[in-house]
Amino acid sequence: MLGLFFFCTASSGYGQLRIGVGMDLFKTDFNNIAEKNQIGIKANYFLVRNFVLTTGYEMWSSGPNSIVLGGRFYPLNPVFVRFRGLLRNNSDLSLGMGYVKSLTRNWKMDYTGDYYFNEGEMGIRVGIAYLF
C-alpha cells in the first residue's frame, strides 16, 4: 500500500516527505486513560505547497487497529484542515483541524483536534515528525 502511495504521487513537482508519530492526549470516550491508548505512525507527502496526502497505521490498546488514508489542506500555513479514513472492521471517518509548530528546519510538532463521525467522539492529538 505504501508503495502504491508513493507511485501515485511520484510525478508531483513538490515532493517533500514527512514521517512522524502521534498519540491521543484526550478523547471524549476516555473513562480511564490506562484503559484506552492510541499511537500512530504516519507519512505525509506534499503534492503541492498546501496539499498533503497522508497514510499511516493507528494502534489502539483496546483495538481494532486501523490503516489510515487521507489528506491535509493548509489554507494558512501552519494551520491545516484534515480528512482521514480509518480502515478497519468498523471503519470510521474523521475531520480535524490542527497547527504545525517548527522546532527546527526538519523537526515539526503537530497539534490536532479531530471529530470521528462513526464513533461520534472528539480527540486531541500531539505528534512529532521529521521532514526529509
Provide a descriptive summary of the structure in words:
The protein has a single domain, classed as Porin (Beta Barrel), CATH 2.40.160. Strands 1-2-3-4-5-6-7-8 form an 8-stranded antiparallel barrel. The protein starts with a helix and ends with a strand. The chain is built from 1 helix and 8 strands. The protein is globular, with a radius of gyration of 14 Å. With 132 residues, the protein is mainly beta.
Q: Low-confidence parts lasting 5 or more residues at pLDDT below 50?
A: 1-13
- Main sheet: strand order: 1-2-3-4-5-6-7-8
Indicate the radius of gyration in whole angstroms.
14 Å
Globally, the shape reads globular
Total beta-strand segments = 8
DSSP helix fraction: under 10%
What is the averaged pLDDT score? 88
Strand content: over 45%
Task: Give a brief rundown of this model.
The chain has 132 residues and is mainly beta.
List keywords for this structure.
disordered N terminus, 8-stranded antiparallel beta barrel, Porin, 132 residues, globular, mainly beta
How would you summarize the topology of this molecule?
Elements: H1 2-9, E1 16-27, E2 38-48, E3 51-60, E4 66-76, E5 79-87, E6 92-102, E7 107-116, E8 121-131
Antiparallel strand pairs: 1-2, 1-8, 2-3, 3-4, 4-5, 5-6, 6-7, 7-8
